[in-house]
Protein: HTH tetR-type domain-containing protein
Amino acid sequence: MLAVARELFAERGLEVPMAAIARRAGVGVATLYRRFPTKEALVVEAFTEQFAHCQAMIDDALKDPDPWRGFCTVIEKVCLLQASDRGFTAAFMASFPDLHSEVRDRTWEDFAALVQRAKDSGQLRADFSPHDLTLVLMANSGLAGVPAEVATAASRRLVAYLLESFRAGTDALPPPVPLSLDLVLS
Structure:
């Protein structure tokens, strides 16, 4: 059931009905609800491993001796994850009461530290804001719905363009907008 839920969430996002998950898993809806009493419980369980993976990416980037490379690696990996799994960004940003908010908060704080580290090294433009990650994810989310191989290739190209614009020494941008990552779901 969990494997099927992950697969359907990746293909169609979190709006997949519980009945569709049960049907594809070959079980009754009651069986699914006995194991996962709410959809939120299923979402949390389905994405727990990916939440940990996302935090580990940032932890590794913070340890990288090259702050720019660490920053770029996180942006690249998060965008590839988003392009290949439509449900992940929605699950990560969902406001479910039991959805590991401490993991989400720590990940955000660590990403902000990664941004500051890259700025301090002089490699990331001074006007980059951690909130710009929302813009990156919103742009990248436009790839949802296209075949996975196309989405990942297009995501790599989009991220390469964006990373070039994030380098220090490029022209000034309009001021950052404090966007919430919840807007990626809209």
